């Protein structure tokens, strides 16, 4: 007997619909504003060239952040909202704020680029992660989630900003000749040598928000996001200011001795956080198994990514699409349970942890009779959950 898979997220999220609608409306308004800016340039050919070149690094950079997100994949809707926020809301609001700042301060371009742009752009990008913290907090389980969402916002922002810069380079401004050569030359700098720049900056804010989620100290919950934002502004300001210092030499030195090491450190930190997340999930699900919520023999099939894929392949071969759907849903529900239970063990569980945890356990019970495990080394039998909740 097979059952059709049902939605994995078995506990309704309060404010979920309102959050999605509100962000979507903001994205629509931002898209209209950016569309007006692009159309006002009256250079459709340049916009096409800029959009094509700007799109080239998007896939590889997105792939890196999605690779980090494989243990507990975030809702695709929220990831797309993050991309859209960065592409339309953050770009349009940052543009307005920079115009206001330039008018108010009447400062030179160097001040705008090194001070006004970092402050406004990182605030506009980081606001999405703060909104997640306040309205969709249950989707944030720690630092790695903060990095992933920050990456989505940064990629969206960089894409639209690159369209603006590359199309301007194609048209030719400030004494530049323009043409495809100028656009490609700028693309080499922005799209090949520094495609991670905006995601890198905003990642500091994401780390700060992630630390706030996992900490039990009120001071950390307040100061970590602020500190992350300030680091994002500092990194962004350093990068922008290098373009005005010592000509091209200052830019190259900053790239080699600041940006490259910073990116390497952050990449190493993200990989470490991913491995730590795997260990945490193993320990948490092992504790769930000791409490009777699942069979201990299932844990490797739920945590190890190659084992997950192997279990899904076997389920599809043995039981078809329905069995694959059940296996996929069972694995994801168990992972959600593991992350929630880990927060309970750390003393940072959300207020609705008991209700959510019991809902996950009930979902596992419903799915368990319909699972098709690999026979050679699969679980020997199902163990029903102990009476009571997660505590």
From TrEMBL:
The lineage of its organism: Bacteria, Bacillati, Actinomycetota, Actinomycetes, Propionibacteriales. The chain crosses the membrane at residues 16-40, 46-68, 80-101, 113-135, 147-172, 192-214, 226-246, 252-273. It comes from Nocardioides mangrovicus. InterPro entries: PrsW. This is Protease PrsW. Keywords: Hydrolase, Membrane, Protease, Transmembrane, Transmembrane helix. The keyword Thylakoid does not apply. One of its GO terms (biological process) is proteolysis. GO terms for molecular function: peptidase activity.
